[in-house]
Amino acid sequence: MANPMERNPFIDQGGGGNNPLLGELPINEEEIEIELPVGEDELLEYIMGTEEQPYNHWDNLALSLDEDELLEIANNVIEEFDADKESRSEWESTFERGFDLLGLKLQETSEPFEGACTAVHPLIIESAVKFQAKASQELFPAKGPVRTQILGASTPEKEKQANRVMNFMNYQLTQQMPEYFDETERMLFNLPVFGSAFKKTYYDLTLERPVVEFVPIDNFYVSYNASDLKNADHYTQVIYRTPNDLKKDIMAGMYALPEDDNLMEPSEVTPSTLRQKMDSILGIQPDYSQNPQHTLLEHHCYLKIEHRGEEGCPCPMCGEKEIDNCLCVGLPYVITVDQDSKSVLSIRRNWNENDPLKEKLLWFTHYRFVPGFGFYGLGYIHFLGNLTATSTAAMRNLIDAGQFATLPGGFKARGVRVTGGDEPIAPGEFREVEATGVDLNKAIINLPYKEPSATLMQMLQFVSTAGQKFADETDQVVSDASNYGPVGTTVALIEQSMKFFSGIHKRLHYSQRQELQILSRINYDFLPDEYPYDIPLVDGNIFKQDFDGRVDIIPVSDPNIPSSSHRLAQAQMIMQLASQAPPGIYNFKAVNAAILDAINIDHPERFIVPEQEPKPLDPVSDIMQATKGMPIKAFPGQDHKAHIVVKQSFIQDPTLGQTPIMAKVVPILEANIREHTIMMYQEQMGGMLKMGTEQAGTGSPEAISAITQGAAQEILQNNQRMAEMGTTESLEKQTLELQK
């Protein structure tokens, strides 16, 4: 199952980068000059497929269709693309108007007066940048975005396989594919603004590795009636290729030359209105005439085209040889068309060769911010656009009112002359006025400009707070929370404030999982049987069969915990519960490891003392080990009575166990006393049971039950008698007394 968009049928499964007829291609140069080791006619014959080639599921079917059929397919592709583009024209116009609310462009205006305020309230752009930072931290931590879980019963073999897959894919996404982080960052900035974002994952034959790229929304068109990419009847990616890049793609076998052996000259790119608006906001004025390109339409759709051949090729679904009589549904294909020349460059099957259902393969991942009423999601421009426009108008009115109040204007009587003209008077400056015999209070009248309105300021604060509360309420909750409040209350407040982002985070987690599964499928198709790689502290070795589906690949982010503050608050709650619970219920090392992990400490195990096996020691040595934080344990054959007496005396001593400095040691010693007490009782019962069975001469279950009950009663009576007498004896003496 290889990539139908990037697959070269003339290169073996290993992904070799050189064509046997072309030699090594200078792929890194801006312009290439190809020196053919064979004649031009032979090369064209090889590319056009006139020689009989063995069947390859990923072959370019455009080589086997005639010119009329290809032209019909090209026209259908362009018509469907134009229809999809037209169907969302109103949707794009919403963003054209909304881009002005981002405040990314510095501008001056003369309306309603020269020098009026042009500032834009940063509500949308601030929310988008905060979302990008928060989501990037969760989706792409420093260790890598991948973790694995075993499907089915866990075995040592599956555990090793899961570790190999996790280590390799994290290495792949952090080192082998350096563009992954940058493309993910671009996607996370566009997502909250537009509401939808797309990423494409494929195998690049030139780089000989998988590649992930962000696809701008103005280069990806889907029918608005589609619910998702899996169920979409068709969708199209617009790809711009320079003449040099397109030549390299053709020579690599990705695309086929038209029958006239020539493509049209590249034309000036006509950007979409959405792209023009984005360029205008960023202050970019590209000269498309100086950089002509080929506009390719990569169209994913369903077709019925495999009914060709001299004797008729039967339908792969029903066996019918005549296409007009075939009642089966179309099969998924990927068609690449040059829009200007209407030349079909490639037609490739888009299903797994071994899939009996021939389900469509996905190469794009759709990230949604908030699901809307159709295919595309909703973003901050939809949610906060009106609030941002209102906040911007209020902020401009306040600033303009402040300017008028600081530098007022007005009227002056005819004949009154002020030295310096109408230039504003600087602080501390006095100017001469030519107004002999004229009262200046009457000759110069200021217009009644008001100070900035307090009511308008309150309205601005209300609207801004409402928008910020909708976008992200966590900051306000954290700033208002008391350091002395209960941890549970803080967790509840954070969880309540994160409801909006938590839902978005779950959708991001789901989409990233789909993206990682596409990458896993590509690894299975293109990796060799064994692939060594270098990674710190790990034996880097991955096998093709490791991606056989027995291990599920999922994002490292937790869909139920959308932020590190939430994770840390939960860890603190566990620590609080563990400190209040009786000893032995919580594993304190695991609790501390969870806290270190919550604050993103790399390799937290290096801060925790490794487990050490306790050794049989005398009572005083046990106490010394406990004060050092070392484990202690009761062992068979020890003088349990001595351990109990010595450690109880230490605990009850007001200068030792009763001091605050020994408070943490007391629970450990008490637990050890319980162990010794139970083990002493166990040894008494074991000795009496052994002696009883020897005397009875039988070891039947009934006899053992009767002897055990009798021994328990004798031990109880003996302990009661000793307690009444106020005497204590050694274990050996008690055993001899019981035997009598």
Provide an overview of this structure.
With 740 residues, the chain is α+β, with helices and mostly antiparallel strands. Helix content is 44%, strand content 12%. The chain has 21 helices and 18 strands. The strands form seven sheets. It has a five-stranded antiparallel beta sheet. A three-stranded antiparallel beta sheet has the order 3-2-9. Strands 1-18 form a two-stranded antiparallel ribbon. A hairpin with a 5-residue loop joins strand 10 (370-371) and strand 11. Helix 19 (665-696) packs across helix 20. The radius of gyration is 39 Å and the shape is flat. The model is unreliable at 1-44 and 46-51 (pLDDT under 50).
Short description:
The protein has 740 residues and is of the alpha+beta class.
Which properties best describe this structure?
three-stranded antiparallel sheet, 12% strand, alpha+beta, 740 residues, five-stranded antiparallel sheet
